[in-house]
Write a structure and sequence with these properties.
alpha/beta, single chain, 7 helices, two-stranded antiparallel ribbon, Rossmann fold, five-stranded parallel sheet
């Protein structure tokens, strides 16, 4: 069954179509898009995008992850990958290592989160010139960026502009 989800925070509103399935432990009406990854793909092959966000921005991050997944990208999103009992730091490290792109959802909460500091530090350390493994900042809310982040061209999704999402999608689809 296909269901349309309306979500947003007043600044960023979207409608997303997802397939709803019955799975043990998942309410039937709860969207569960990860159960249909691309044919023949397994997580050991890697991800296109690792989404780094503050837990306070989860709703926006989840909606964006669903859009990118619906547009054919392989997404590492903590809610979809982590299982009860998984050591979070090991899973995050593995996800970062297996992802071509770290997409950072920028907000005041992101800038104050210890987890996101570790994630973006790892991404910047492994490719400081941002050539082979990309760091893409996505501006979700107004915030004063530290110089280290301000140097990167950002995608601005604060106003829900379709052309900005198109730029993001194109950047995520580019290889090497």
């Amino acid at each position: 069954m296909t269901q349309t989800i309306n979500s947003g925070n007043g600044c960023y509103n979207t409608q997303t179509k997802v397939t709803v399935h019955n799975h043990p432990g998942v309410a039937p009406e709860q969207p569960h898009p990860i159960c249909h990854p691309p044919a023949g793909w397994s997580p050991s092959e890697g991800y296109d995008v690792f989404i780094s966000y503050s837990s306070q921005d989860r709703k926006f991050a989840h909606t964006l992850a669903e859009r990118l997944l619906a547009d054919g990208l392989k997404i590492w999103f903590d809610e979809w990958v982590l299982k009860p009992g998984d050591p979070i730091s090991v899973a995050v490290e593995d996800g970062l290592e297996k992802s071509r792109i770290l997409l950072a959802i920028l907000s005041p909460q992101f800038l104050h989160s210890e987890w996101t500091k570790v994630e973006r530090g790892a991404a910047m350390f492994r490719d400081p010139a941002n050539r082979t493994r990309r760091f893409i900042p996505v501006l979700y809310q107004d915030c004063k960026l530290p110089d280290m982040l301000a140097q990167y061209k950002q995608i601005d999704l604060r106003a829900n502009a379709p052309e900005e999402y198109k730029k993001l999608l194109e950047a995520c689809r580019q290889r090497g």
